[in-house]
């Protein structure tokens, strides 16, 4: 149980669930002409991502012991419940196993360089824990890039996906890579917002250890305003995307995105900073996590929208339901 707490098993489930939905709803869509995409190709990549994330949590907690004792002493696992040596060994073994899992897939396709994605993630997580986390903006941007790579790594391992239309529609198709990069953008921005809010929550311990995070350097009020700007920009892009899918008849996806993602994010963005307490920032962080999960689940709505879309008139509003025919458009 201590090891499960250390590797944040709930977060690992979210990572795996995200990649599984991307694979099932975008890459392995039934009825498409795309060949060579199998569950056996996905599982090594998905498992590798989870193992690297688990190793990242271990090494982060290893170097954050003093900070965590101040910020959240009840959650400290390393040194109290798990020996430091055991944690480092587990970190190394998990990373090696992650590389071993994708090696056969990469070499079978004749592209061993694909493994650079996993290698880069491992290196970034190490330097995040040792250096980047304590620097202004750098740490949060690195974590946000890693969140986006959770989605984009499947694109790297499936180059045949590029240029293939995955949406069997009655009108102009939405290229699969657009959707992948759209979800990667969402993951990047929401992670950046959440990491910044977590810095606001952890300001006491971070300051004690000499970290130069945004709240420490610029203050809580400025940081709250910064997060609101990130939220406003994300809302703008999400709003444009919603109009885009509405106009192409994906009404259910449009409504889900508006009600399940845009409105909660709008509320959180413009209420953040009204109360500057650790408890409030913890709640805001949890809500951002919930919004991220809601965004991930929109892939399910998108998937089923491919089977049932609404025809639109010249204004872009739906006029009559119609069953979508499978095909590459």
Strand arrangement in the largest pleated sheet:
1-2
Mean pLDDT across every amino acid position: 83
Radius of gyration from the CA trace?
21 Å
**Outline, from the CA principal axes?**
globular
Fraction of residues in β-strands: under 5%
Question: For the report, how would you describe the main beta sheet?
Answer: 2 strands, antiparallel
What is the number of domains?
1
Secondary structure layout plus pairing:
Elements: H1 2-6, H2 9-27, H3 39-63, H4 65-71, H5 84-108, H6 116-130, H7 138-157, H8 176-201, H9 203-208, H10 214-218, H11 220-247, H12 251-271, H13 278-305, E1 308-312, E2 318-323
Antiparallel strand pairs: 1-2
Helix pairs in contact: 2-3, 2-13, 3-5, 3-6, 6-7, 7-8, 8-11, 8-13, 11-12, 12-13
Question: What this model shows, in words?
Answer:
The structure is a single chain. The N and C termini lie far apart (50 Å). Strand 1 and strand 2 (318-323) form a beta hairpin. The radius of gyration is 21 Å and the shape is globular. It is mainly alpha-helical. It has a two-stranded antiparallel sheet. Helix 8 packs antiparallel against helix 13. It contains 13 helices and two strands.
């Amino acid at each position: 149980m201590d090891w499960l707490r250390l590797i944040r098993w709930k977060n690992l489930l979210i990572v795996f669930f995200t990649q599984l939905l991307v694979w099932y709803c975008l890459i392995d869509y039934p009825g498409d002409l795309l060949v060579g995409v199998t569950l056996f190709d996905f599982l090594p990549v998905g498992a590798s991502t989870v193992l690297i994330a688990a190793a990242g949590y271990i090494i982060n907690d290893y170097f954050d012991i003093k900070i965590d004792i101040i910020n959240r002493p009840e959650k400290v696992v390393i040194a109290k419940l798990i020996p430091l040596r055991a944690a480092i060994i587990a970190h190394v073994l998990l990373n090696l196993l992650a590389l071993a899992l994708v090696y056969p897939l990469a070499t079978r396709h004749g592209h061993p360089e694909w493994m650079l994605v996993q290698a880069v993630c491992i290196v970034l997580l190490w330097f995040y824990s040792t250096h980047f986390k304590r620097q202004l903006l750098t740490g949060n941007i690195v974590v946000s890039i890693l969140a986006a790579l959770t989605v984009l790594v499947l694109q790297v391992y499936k180059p045949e996906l590029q240029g293939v239309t995955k949406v069997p529609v009655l009108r102009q198709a939405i290229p699969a890579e657009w959707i992948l990069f759209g979800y990667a953008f969402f993951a990047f921005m929401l992670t950046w917002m959440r990491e910044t809010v977590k810095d606001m929550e952890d300001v006491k311990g971070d300051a004690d250890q000499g970290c130069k995070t945004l709240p420490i350097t610029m203050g809580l009020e400025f940081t709250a305003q910064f997060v609101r700007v990130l939220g406003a920009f994300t809302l703008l892009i999400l709003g444009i995307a919603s109009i885009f899918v509405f106009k192409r008849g994906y009404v259910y996806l449009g409504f889900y995105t508006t009600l399940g993602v845009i409105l909660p994010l709008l509320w959180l963005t413009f209420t953040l900073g009204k109360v500057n307490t650790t408890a409030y920032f913890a709640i805001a962080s949890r809500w951002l996590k919930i919004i991220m999960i809601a965004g991930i689940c929109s892939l399910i709505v998108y998937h089923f929208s491919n089977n049932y879309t609404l025809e639109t008139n010249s204004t872009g509003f739906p006029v009559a339901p119609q069953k979508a025919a499978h095909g590459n458009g």
